[in-house]
Write a structure and sequence with these properties.
Keywords: Membrane, Transmembrane, Transmembrane helix. It comes from Algibacter amylolyticus. Helices cover 85% and strands 0% of the residues. The longest helix is centred in the first third of the chain and has 27 residues, at 2-28. By secondary structure, the chain is an all-alpha fold.
Length: 61
């Protein structure tokens, strides 16, 4: 029974360590996306064209 308490304590310590590492990584900006905003302008035209084609088709019908 004492092994369960030891494993539980160790797993909580490991979980806290991973959580702290995650918080530090977020604060340092590791998960900031700097690529997508520069490419987003290339794909917006396709979305607008698709929307206008759909609206044109619905207006003809």
């Amino acid at each position: 029974m004492s092994v369960i308490y030891i494993l539980l304590a160790v797993s909580i310590v490991v979980a806290i360590c991973f959580f702290i590492a995650f918080i530090i990584a977020v604060k340092k900006g590791q998960f900031d996306d700097s690529y997508t905003p520069s490419v987003r302008m290339l794909f917006e035209d396709e979305l607008i064209k698709n929307k206008t084609e759909k609206t044109i088709l619905t207006k003809k019908d």
